[in-house]
Amino acid sequence: MKPELESLLQLQKTDLEIRKLLSEKEECPKRLEALKEQVEEEESYLKETTERITQLNKHKIELEDELELENVRLNKSQQRLSTIKTDREYQAVFKEIEDIKRANKEREDEILLTMNQIEELEKEIKSKKEALSQLQKEMEVEQKQVDKTEKELSKKIAALEKERDKLAAKVKPNLLTKYNFLKDKRQGIVISNVTAGVCSGCHMNIPPQLFNELLRDERIHVCPTCQRIIYADREKENAKA
User: Fold this and answer.
1) Domain extents for the chain?
2) What is the reported pTM?
3) Is pLDDT of 133 > 80?
4) Integer Cα distance of 49 and 125 in angstroms
């Protein structure tokens, strides 16, 4: 195998390792992000529920104020009842008293219902706060783990990038330019071996004449289908022979 091709294969191996580590680094924060989303959702729910309780308490106070005022009005109407002389006026005041009593009963029922709602929401808030506290602890632990892993991966990537620079320096500029151009377009696989006339990169047959030239290993060739740099796997070919 030509020395330049050997350097390219080493370069590709290093680039693939860098690519793998970068992918791992990108995946690192995903669980942390999921935990952050959960925390945000819980915090948002707690805020909304707290606001709901505030509104219910306000509504309860309004009902209690109305009930107090209506009870005052009820007492006055009941006192008037004993001083009325005509039946018609008596019936009107009596009806007013019954209406006030009925409305007050509805207010009392609504106050009780509101108090029950507030109690249930306060229980739920307590439970949610405990869950939120646990999530925040998990997030802190995960953050430390992510920071540690990212630091380790960055160190490995930096070392590989130095090694890559050394390998790249051994390759002719025009060949390196072609390699770099194809690297991202071919998911990092720029150099492929050819076995039994088939390119391992695109799994397409190459012309027989080209395959024979590959076996002679006189110059660097590219696959006519995928444009990858190709070489013959001579060990496999010799084994078959």
Assistant:
1) 11-168, 172-240
2) 0.67
3) yes
4) 7
